[in-house]
Predict the 3D structure of the following.
Amino acid sequence: MTVAAQPPVCDIAVVTFEQMWRDLEPVGRDRRTTGYVRSPFASAERECAAWYAEEAGRRGLELEYDGQGNAVAWWRPRVGVNTTSAAAGDAILVGSHLDSVDQGGAFDGPLGVVSSFAAIDRLRESGFTPTRSVGVAMFVEEEGSRFGIACLGSRLATGRIEAAEAAQLRDRDGVFLLDAMTAAGLEPQLGPSSLLADVGCFVELHVEQGRDLVDRGRAVAMASSSWAHGRWRFDFGGQPNHAGATRMEDRHDPMLTYAMTALAANKQARLTDARATFARVDVEPNITNAIPSRVRAWLDARGADAAQVDELVATVTRQAGERATRDGTRLEVTTESVVPTVDFDLALSRRLAALLEDAPLIATGAGHDAGILQLAGIPAAMIFVRNPTGISHSPDEFAQTADCLVGIEALASVIEELAS
Ligand code: HGY
Ligand code: MN
Ligand code: MN
């Protein structure tokens, strides 16, 4: 009697990935633009958080919250399985974030969370049981799109922002962080989080932001480093006046000083292979027929190393000041959020790259929660999943399902390697 060959491991991960993706797809999507608006502690993002809790519950994972919007869904070793000592520092953390930039794409953040749940499905289907805890993290306000600080949730969880400083943050409507948390039903407790107490390493799967992989013909890569980056607020003050009655030579127009500054930043970034973006501008009174009294503009500057970014910002600030003198306007520059270059844990990244058919190690111009945890001393690595156009922070952000499934396989192999 021939023993039926073991049925192939049913592609549970394919089924659950596609189901989870279908469930998340409509949440916070703007029908007009197809972009996503999942602002932390607002309704769509809270719907994503509810989805996360439901998926964790569906898998019997142990949900742990830290009272400031972050959560980890734990897959604990079965009691009796020769678990390693449940010593602090041996849990494996995966996951990512669910918030988006305004009008962002579907993949930045959610792909890491969905892939983590699907990887657990795949491992369970193959009969794997971890000997150490495996957690699926959901970090809040990774984008800094509401309260202005990139990776606010993971900074709070790792103590890389003081609770007192975070408590002063307000959104564009003047809503304080704590009030936004309370309005979302949290009983906010800001500060270092017990969630990470036992974490030995963090592996964040993320859609690639850039098009390195498509040029290499590879579906996944590991991260080598993430660029230094920051946000600086430029306040240009001028003389409000009539758009028609005021001669050009009599104007003190902050919009002109701002415009010259944006051009200078673009030039400086091109000259030094850095990145400089003015993408958010508030104008007062923002009417057609009056020279503005004030223009407030935010510079997002990035570079392979912090010195390069500092140099760019200093040069642009100097040039803006010179222009302000010529225009008879005023300038004030405020640093809002800075992250140094982060070198991910090389030993961990190389070990995982070897596991993934010698996946390349590539740098990223984007910031990530994995970078914050690395800076906080938790060895971190990132798995990038190919993005055919490289476009991100846009409704056009995209990844092929086939590549997403390769990412899930990769993450499952990584968890199996680290949690055995
Ligand atoms: O802005 C960034 O680099 C990231 O996507 N939060
Ligand atoms: Mn992200
Ligand atoms: Mn992002």
